[in-house]
Amino acid sequence: MALNLDAIGEKIGPIEKEYSWRDVVLYALGVGAGFDELEYVYEKDLKVIPTFSIATIIDFLFELGAKANVNTAGILHGEQEIVFHRPIPTEGKFITTGHIKNYYDLGDKGAIIVGESITKDAKGKKLFTSTITIVGRLDGNFGGEKPPKKTIQFPDTDPDFVVEDCPSPDQPLIYRLSGDLFALHVDPKFARQVGFKEPIMHGLCTLGFACRALIKTLVPGRPDKVRRISCRFSKPLYPGTPIKTLIWKVSDDKALYRVVNAKTGDVILDMGEFEFGELVRERIDFTGKVAVVTGAGGGLGRAYAIELAKRGAKVIVNDLGGSRDGTGASKTPAQKVVDEIKAIGGEAYANYDNVATKEGGENIIKTAIERFGRIDILINNAGILRDKSFTKMDPDMWHGVMDVHLHGAYYVTRPAFLKMKEQGYGRIIFTTSAAGLYGNFGQANYSAAKLALVGFMNTLKEEGEKYNIKVNTVAPLAVSRLTQDIFPEDMLDKAKPEYVVPLVLYLVSDKCDISGRIYNAGVGSYNRVVIGTGPGIMLSEKGEVPSPEKIKENLDYICSLKDFKVYKNLTEQLTDLLSSLNKKPDQDAKGESTIFNSPNEVFAAMPKAFKKDASKGVDVSFLFKISGKSGGEWVVKISNGNLDITEGVIDNPTTTLEMEDKDFLDMMNGKLPAMQAYTSGKLKISGDIMKSQLIEKLFKLN
Ligand code: NAI
Predict the structure, then answer these.
(1) Closest ligand 1 atom to the C-alpha of 360?
(2) Which residues fall within 8 angstroms of residue 569, CB to CB, at 6 or more apart?
């Protein structure tokens, strides 16, 4: 058997590996995480220890060995480097391709095989690059070159941090479930055959311990900040041996480390390098793109135009140059911004048209096409204010504001959309406002126009979908001439338009595949706004028209936003509505829409909701003491799969549950989670508290 020297450069993979949060947690347990690092082992707000990546694609190491034709009896993992391009998601798919990069000859000590691989996610985004070194202890003396000398200068001082830990004696048995099933780490006979007294720790498992220690020390709580980790596996470690990770921080973003056997001082992992900080992300660039920004002579529009130009876009800077209420006109504001852009080496052209006319809108887009040949980005930003309380708001104020914000957006977007459709690419922004989303005294005209833009977007995103035209809406918050009088002095700098720019730039970039969403942006904070629809209630199961009284009685359910939905479009909402119509009434008897109006109804429904299968071997009696007008006492007995419900009390029930009728009904109608009822004191449980948990298992009421 000899190494296959011709295999250098031959492709390995793609090796595909799908994983879920369970794999992430299993790995974390395998490398020693526990209750004190719950973020790695609890699916709620789960974080991924980045070395999970390499453990999960361990098949690459085996394929590398197979391609190189290494003698498996002598195989050891020599060195490992992982460079992260993106944080590792908590679930998804790894698609890995790679090749053998090199062979080196260690003579009697064996051979070194270096493999390189790139792992991407299912969307083709690069996640990490791995360089793996295998030592083939039985494959040396093949006449190859010696490996290049690698040295890492460790500081001549004590380490800055020492993290102590102790892998359990069974550690490899858990770790191997993450993928590396090699017999050396589990089979005592095999381990002895290849020269060890018992199975040894996986080198990558010890690396996982080191990675946890490094994160805890250098980027606490931020495993996504690991940029690179590497090490040499220098000595075997037997499970159950205490270890120390010695860490020297050599700069703001780099540390060197070693893992030593705490008993003998032997270095187990050597030449460890750890780089950290925000991952270098792909730059958002607009080279070759043409953007139109309306109302870009000042405020937010100016900030968008400048940053777009800085990042390579050719920009049409539109501005009518009127006053705050829209009267007057001037070429100066637009021209000044164009001059600014040119002064920093960007490309821009001024346009002074009024967005509020059909001709104006058409001419703005015509200017972009004539000057720069296309239109990729349109930011509808021009705006004015004519504020007055509603009773004083005359038609001029109403129409003036509608004309600029709503009709202006229509006049400019239509010719732009036509061209984008032809191109098969476009990014459009509408500018809404918190006044429209939430309401603001004295701005009925402005609020109406601004929220109308959301409706406009909702439909345009549907019509643009198949042409790769993405349409989004942003509600900015920034100091400008429109808002300068409402901001206190100390907010002027904190609310610069520049804080809104990053979100808008992302949304108009080719990296954005989101469409039809609304965002707030300002002072460095960004969030999404949705139009949510509550579950509601079907009050017309048999086709009857419900009375207004029935509406009043059911207002709580009608208004509930519990588990609200955000529909993609009208069709989705309608389908949902129709499917609730088609549900058979008896399906609902136990389903979501069963509403209990009294405790009596609950106990009457219990026999139907009883899950006989789940009651095998259960022998309990629950005493319910329900206070309030519709209250009473009930005993629910379950024995040998039989259910018996009676009104009244018994001596020595297994568990007693006490509640007010109102709270009891809320709980049974799914409005009050049992745990919350208990922790808030609304539900009092005495006797065998644990047995109360059986209720949820034995009955499917709601
Ligand atoms: P701004 O007054 O500095 O900018 C608006 C620009 O639009 C001005 O340069 C103006 O000359 C131009 N403009 C007005 N009417 C025009 C027309 N008919 N044709 C062409 N250009 C016209 O104000 P700011 O704050 O930068 O506003 C930008 C957008 O953001 C507006 O749509 C505004 O309603 C919206 N907005 C701003 C908020 C803020 O906190 N600054 C809050 C919510 C929304």
Answers:
(1) 19
(2) 458, 462
Q: Is 504 in the pocket of ligand 1 (CB under 6 A)?
A: no
Q: Is 175 a catalytic residue?
A: no
pTM for the full model? 0.57
Q: Compute, in angstroms, the gap from residue 46 CA to the centroid of ligand 1.
A: 42
Pocket flag, ligand 1, residue 317 (CB < 6 Å): no
Task: Take atom 11 of ligand 1 and give the residue whose Cα is closest.
Answer: 321
For residues 309 and 377, the answer to whether their CB atoms sit within 8 Å is no
Q: Residue 414 corresponds to which amino acid?
A: R
Render pLDDT for 420-454 as a digit per residue (tens, 0 to 9): 999 999 999 999 999 999 999 999 999 999 999 99
Q: Is 30 in the pocket of ligand 1 (CB under 6 A)?
A: no
**How many A from CA of 530 to the centre of ligand 1?**
24
pLDDT of 584-620, one tens digit each? Answer: 444 343 334 568 889 999 999 888 888 888 888 889 9
Beta-bridge partners for 355 = none
H or E element in which residue 55 lies: helix 52-56
Q: Are the beta carbons of 523 and 494 closer than 8 angstroms?
A: yes
- The H or E element containing residue 637 is strand 632-639
Rg (CA), the chain: 34
Q: What is the DSSP string of 393-420?
A: --HHHHHHHHIIIIIHHHHHHHHHHHHH
Which helix (H) or strand (E) segment is 462 a member of?
A: helix 444-464
- β-pairing verdict for 377-380 and 290-293: parallel
In angstroms, what CA-CA distances link 299 with 408, 497, 507, 583?
Answer: 18, 7, 19, 53
